[in-house]
Specification:
Elements: E1 9-12, H1 26-32, E2 34-37, H2 45-52, E3 57-60, H3 69-73, E4 80-83, H4 93-98, E5 102-104, H5 111-127, H6 129-137, E6 153-157, H7 161-172, E7 176-180, H8 195-201, E8 204-207, H9 221-226, E9 231-235, H10 244-253, E10 256-261, E11 281-283, H11 292-310
Parallel strand pairs: 1-2, 1-3, 3-4, 4-5, 6-7, 6-8, 8-9, 9-10, 10-11
């Protein structure tokens, strides 16, 4: 592989809204590299190519920038894409390998933040906090409609860094935790259940999978049909892991009593989307991992990955 320049040319094609430019790590990055910085989204593949065509390194902020075969083919100088975040579903990894481009991400740095947000969504959905807040502000006095979580069963699908952290939090409030993972051999000594048992017995189902061809629409109508009546679904992973029409039906007709969602098939969630009309859903804007602490740690690791690659 061709060596990078001692002062590498780095493109940041998509810092929108800006997080990198206001981070503590940014001045040091400016001092060590030639930066092509953009605080707007590319909006198209052609614009993305234009922004990164001459770069050796891309520091990718937003997953809406998709790194396809065509993008890699059009950028022969590119040697590294350093992603701020864990997900790589917006990158054609096989194409990157064919074109000699390394891919780095920042796994684990947001796990605690995402797990805490997952717990917050669970409390909000189970206790109907948004609905009661709205009703109380209008003078109503609605009580007795909450679910107590102590002693309930929480089924956790995915046992990566976030899944493990959320399992700890759920256990900490007295929930019985059931676990499922695609890779049980990686965790000797951990007891996992099969999915049929998890769906059938869990009062709460929380998703912590990566999005891949294997997990796209992982939960659809057949899976909802197996779930316990009155169950709550929490998704802080990726929206496309859940079949959206099936989710809407499960919320309207059962078995779901509620859902807490931080991620959606289309983001930002379109105005007047069907989910926004449902009173048994708590919605947040894909922000679970964006606390100041997690943001700074993730951006620092994304930049450190660049320097480790440059050598």
């Amino acid at each position: 592989m061709r060596r990078l320049e001692s002062v590498p040319r780095i493109s940041i094609p998509d810092d929108a809204p800006p997080v990198l430019a206001t981070a503590a790590v940014f001045p040091a990055l400016q001092a060590r590299a030639q930066l092509d910085y953009h605080d707007t989204l590319p909006g198209s593949e052609d614009v993305l190519i234009e922004r990164i065509r001459h770069a050796e390194v891309v520091l990718n902020i937003r997953s809406s920038s998709r790194f396809t075969e065509r993008v890699f083919a059009a950028c022969p100088k590119l040697r590294l894409v350093s992603i701020w975040g864990t997900g790589t579903d917006h990158v054609d990894l096989a194409a990157a390998a064919r074109h000699g481009v390394a891919i780095a991400n920042t796994p684990g740095v947001s796990a605690r933040s995402i797990a805490e947000h997952t717990l917050a969504l669970l409390f909000a959905a189970a206790r109907r906090i948004p609905q009661m807040d709205a009703a109380t502000r209008l003078g109503a006095w609605e009580r007795g409609q909450s679910m107590e979580l102590y002693g309930k069963t929480c089924g956790i699908i995915g046992y990566g860094a976030v899944g493990r952290e959320f399992a700890r939090l759920a256990s900490g409030i007295g929930m019985r935790v059931k676990l499922w993972t695609m890779h049980p051999a990686q965790y000797p000594g951990v007891e996992f259940v099969d999915l049929f048992d998890l769906y059938a017995t869990s009062d709460v189902v929380s998703l912590h999978l990566r999005l891949s061809p294997e997990t796209h629409n992982f939960i659809a109508a057949p899976q909802f049909a197996r779930m316990k009546p009155g169950a709550i679904l929490i998704n802080t992973a990726r929206g496309a892991i859940v079949d959206e029409p099936a989710l809407l039906h499960a919320l309207a007709a059962g078995p779901l009593s509620a859902a807490g969602l931080d991620v959606f098939t289309s983001e930002p969630l379109p105005k007047h989307h069907q989910l926004t009309a449902l009173g048994n859903v708590v919605l947040t804007p894909h922000c679970a991992g964006i606390t100041p602490e997690a943001l700074q740690a993730g951006l620092q690791l994304a930049v450190d990955n660049i320097w480790n690659f440059v050598g």
